[in-house]
Amino acid sequence: MNELDYNNIKTAVIIPTLCRYEHLEKCLTSLMKNPWARYVDLYIGLDYPAKRDHWPGYRKILKLMGRDYSMFRSFHLVKRPKNYGASENTVSLLQEVFKDHDQFIYMEDDVELSENYLEYMLKALVYFRDDPDVISVGGYAYPIRLTVEKECNIITQNAIFNMWGAGFWKNKYQVFSKEISENLSLIRDFSYNIRHYKFSRYRRVDYINCVAGVDPDDVDVRKLCPMFTAETDIAMGVYMQIKGKYQAMPRISKVRNNGFDGTGLYCPTIKPGKAGRFGRLTSDTYDYSKQPIDRRRHFILRYDEGRSRERAFKVLDHFVSPGMKMVVKSNIKMVAYRILGKRKLKFMKIYHQLFSKDNY
Question: What is the spatial order of strands in the sheet that 246-250 belongs to?
């Protein structure tokens, strides 16, 4: 595909944010260095402060919005008149870009990007657009050793779904969005899914801890189970493994995550270098802020045609492993679920109200 043809593909980059000025400034600076920024429309959803602590960072971001963003095809600042919250802020941005775009890139405000990130994303979005098995293009690669063909620089895997700079097609997104957030299929079909499908260890534990015993018809279901009633990375990971779908992943990461410092909504604070079980580093002990990212300015796509999927699943499942506390909790919940039943269980509802926040 000729580079000039990307002018005819309308791609939006959406970044919901609120008050993390330092993170957002680093994210935007790295994004602006991408030569292919000229092919994307940048949308920033600036939420309104919900408390006093938000105001200093919010005001700094307002000043940051005054910079020159002419390197992008267009720039749009969407200021919220009241506090929407992270989820509603993102959904509102999507509704805006879906009016005029067939694909988009979701970016958290704490990521740092390679100079060839946008070229990689746009080429991969074109390459996999008509592949029914690939539902997203991820820009992040976990620090794992994966043996693939020598010239290959992109694979597809479904061990874990990553949202740190992920690309989507509108039509595919709307399909799984309806199943997850409208039909609540991951909750309604929990009993069947947990018996009949193979999950990675982390996703299985997450699925049980968040969903077991939740009644999909409960008026509070979205409060009880926020991670499986919206298009979160956790829900998407389980969805992929149930449906046999995949996310594209580069061999060399195009994204560095700086958000494991306690400032994020869901990301925990990670103590770098602290070894996990058996003295090895895992996803819960790796220092993501120090991860090397691709230094090349351009990207030529070379796909392995899915030949690395099984190997990638095993290696990623080894690295992204649940902690013992999560495993024990899931075992207890599964026993209680089987004894007490699956719907309208007061005990399980109380359990979720007391402990569900520990899972996120």
Answer: 74-79, 40-46, 11-17, 103-106, 166-169, 134-138, 246-250, 154-157
